[in-house]
Amino acid sequence: MADKDFKPVVFVDKFTEGVLDPNEEMEYFVQDGGYIVANTAPGCWGPMLTPKLKGGHEVTKPVYVEGAEVGDSVAIYIKDLQVTSIATSSGKDVVIEGRYEGDPFVAKRCPSCGTERPETRIEGTGPDAIRCAVCGADVAAFKFENGYTIVFDHEKGIGITVSEEIARAIGENPRYYMQTPANSVQNPVVVLAPHDLVGTVARMRPFLGQLGSTPSIPFPDSHNAGDFGQLLIGATHEYGMTKEQLDEHRTDGHMDVNMTRKGAVVIVPVKVKGAGIYLGDMHAMQGNGEIAGHTTDVAGIATVQVKVLKGVTVEGPIILPNEDDLPPMAKPFTDEEMDAAYVLAEQWGQNQIEESYPLCFVGTGATLNEATDNGLMRASRFLGIPYAEVLNRATITGAIGIGRLPGVVAVTFLVPMELLDKKGLLDLVQDKYGG
User: Fold this and answer.
1) CB-based contact 13:181 (threshold 8 Å)
2) DSSP strand E in 368-433: where?
3) C-alpha angle 259/263/269, rounded to 5°?
4) Rounded Cα–Cα distance for residues 273 and 250 (Å)
5) pLDDT tens-digit series, residues 4-51
6) Which of 155, 285, 312, 422 shows the smallest number of beta carbons within 10 Å?
7) Are the beta carbons of 330 and 412 closer than 8 angstroms?
8) With contact defined as beta carbons under 8 Å apart, do 424 and 312 qualify?
9) pLDDT reported for residue 216
10) Cα Rg of the chain, angstroms
């Protein structure tokens, strides 16, 4: 791609219309080893309330990475994440029948005039504030069953949910309080002014819910995973596909795994030339499982570094979490622990001792069981070891964590150095965890 201007630092300020499309020519080009800086737009609720968007998120336009070919991988180093939203709203959703065709995230329509994916306008605050620009009808396909508005102290890392009066005041100036980027077209969720939780305190721990590479066929961005992607199987809209296509083409960039925060490394597959790295859906905080279906979507500034891993082929994301985020059984052994292991081995006449480091394989599927099997099988195929061996290693040197219900898991366990070296990951892993 000699005709492309690959930059050491790329500033991304444009967003998709809710679709990751490999057929669309990329506009941003970054050097191998370079940096991507983006002012990301809130995910989930804002796009869900914006019928003209064709997916449930509003992620950055993909970035072409120099030298990335199909079959390679890209290591994404999360250098910094800063929440810029002053406040946001979230909560458990209810889908409103009659306001979509088959999939409320992708194929919205006005219940009054029937316009598909209509433009909208905001009138006041509250659950009926988002109106069809054609006929004026209440057009939002989602409402809150139980919701809240939360404000942040960025310096102290604390959020507090607020009263109806405060929530409505925030909703009257929504783009300011959510700090939505200039090119974002979403309706800010705070206009709904939910206030079922008042005075609840929560710790901020920002991470990226979307971080990945472009799939090899067009995908609504929120559906680029094995659980949300189930909505695409047999769908009548233009992004419908078969189960086989879903399994073959997705890259699982929509993880919602809360370990993808500052300091972590995410290895992603390359399924289109240039990889097409995209990011978004920053969350201010989330426990394992995202059990309400949604969490605190915020605008933010993300800085990541990308490095191409030539000839390293992965089926889905592999995470190198921060050590604090690792399950207890998967933490790297201390020098003291390894000294004790060598003493124990000598006592028993055991000559072979493994030295190992953690890897986290993301698995997705229609259910948690399917996602777990997906993650375990990905680990088995990548490392070239029997499935049963993966089960044993994940049992005594790891854990299965829930990223998101209904079907995203993190399969984490200690992997012997020999296998990491064979797969071309040893230097990367040792740089992360020392050694």
Assistant:
1) yes
2) 398-404, 408-416
3) 65
4) 15
5) 899 999 999 999 999 999 999 999 999 999 999 999 999 999 999 999
6) 155
7) yes
8) yes
9) 98
10) 22
Query: In this structure, is the dihedral angle defined by the CA atoms of residues 399, 313, 378 and 248, taken in order, positive or negative?
Result: positive
Vertex 274: Cα angle to 422 and 37 (nearest 5): 100
Q: Which of 285, 222, 220 is nearest to 255 (CA)?
A: 222
Size of the chain, expressed as the number of residues it contains: 435
What stretch of H or E contains 275? strand 275-283
Distance CA 281, CA 263 (A): 18
What is the C-alpha separation between 205 and 159, in angstroms, rounded? 10
Q: Would you say 433 and 357 are in contact if contact means Cβ atoms under 8 Å apart?
A: yes
For 31, the 3-state DSSP assignment is strand
**Residue type at 170?**
I
Residues of the chain with pLDDT under 70: 1-2
- The structure tokens listed for 382 are 């990548």
Sequence-ordered strand ranges (E) for 154-244: 158-161, 201-203, 207-212, 219-220
DSSP code of residue 102:
S
Please list the residues that pair with 42 across neighbouring strands: none
Determine the Cα–Cα distance for residues 246 and 254; give it in Å rounded to an integer: 14
pLDDT of residue 1: 44
- Residue 113 backbone phi and psi in degrees, to 5: -95, -10
CA distances from 255 to 209, 377, 398, 405, 407 (A): 6, 18, 20, 11, 10
What is the spatial distance between Cα 186 and Cα 183, in angstroms, rounded to a whole number? Answer: 9
The DSSP string of 42-89 is P-THHHHT-TTSSSS--PBPPEEETT--TT-EEEEEEEEEEE--SEEE
